Amino acid sequence: MEQKLRIGVVGLGMGSIHLKGYQSNPHAEVAAICDVNEERLRACAQEFNIEQTFTDANEMFRKAGLDAVSIATPNKFHAPLTITALKAGLHVLCEKPMAMNTKEAERMNEAAKKARKNLMINFSFRFSEMSFALKQQVDAGVIGDIYYGRTVWHRRRGIPGFGGWFTNKELAGGGPLIDLGVHRLDLALWLMGYPEPVVVSGSAYNVIAKEKAAQDDKAYTVEDLACGLIKFKNGATLILEASWMLNIDEDEKMITMLCGTKGGLVQKNIGGGYDFVGEVYTEEGGHLFTKRLDRSMVPVPSPYQEFVDSILEKRQPLATGEQGIKVMKILDGIYKSAELGREVRYRQ
Ligand SMILES: NC(=O)c1ccc[n+]([C@@H]2O[C@H](COP(=O)([O-])OP(=O)(O)OC[C@H]3O[C@@H](n4cnc5c(N)ncnc54)[C@H](O)[C@@H]3O)[C@@H](O)[C@H]2O)c1
Fold first, then answer.
1. Class of domain 5-122+302-319
2. Is the pTM of this model over 0.85?
């Protein structure tokens, strides 16, 4: 019988989605799970029929006989757990944001190179029909050279775990920018070919959440809105915006708009939900065309399938540590620029 990859999962909130992804893959099995919350650990083991359970991730890395692991804990633990897992000889799929900051992300990537193991970042919004369909249009040259874009995720009111780790800077590293903005930034950068940032100007606010936190007596030490303007070495400019609480028209608004020399594209959510439409705008023979995209022309793997395939095929995964570092650099730059009140230039 063909051997299956033995995979462990650390952190069983979002981690349970990873778990389901692996369990539905004929080339993988979930051999062990880990959570510091024993009740969650027990419930998950029972629901998914998993024998080996651990409350200490490092012990699981050493003892469970694994090939690979998913890290889906609060952000603060991404770097230390990823590095220990890589040192233990395991491939790692780490949740977004890759880390708390660029320095940590660079250390993770170094550890992967040293261990000669795969490190993939779960930029899950790339792995959809609509994202792949748009990427095909870009790769086919329909958009031309992208020189301007805007990528946005706003919620009118939508703080995850208000008062918990998501809203604690020490555990999360930041607020909606690092939580939601990270997805829209990755999608835009991926479609743009991951250009090199040279300068960033950002602003961050804590206005509506601050008032709500005081009213409800909750801890809230991150921004509720951040935005930034990023200029790249190839001359392109991108605007990024993310918020958990903003006075806008929709409950949840996601849009990525990219404009190129030959055409433009938009991916946006429908009716405040998690379904997306994609459109491409071109001009031919003096006529303007709007094309609505149906679906990708190639099969779209889930991130969990892509992680497994990349290991079995001995190749880099689609969402790499290098890309994760570039994302962290931009997020760090926006936070730093907001703090300093001036633009931040990257050393080239
Ligand atoms: N890719 C996506 O679309 C997506 C969606 C949701 C969350 N996430 C990411 O997943 C991560 C987890 O988010 P969540 O919503 O599942 O949070 P959560 O709080 O629901 O779950 C985190 C779990 O990790 C456990 N945990 C904490 N420290 C641990 C440790 N040291 N070892 C083992 N377990 C530990 C907690 O007990 C908890 O059960 C975050 O980085 C978040 O940004 C990604």
1. alpha beta
2. yes
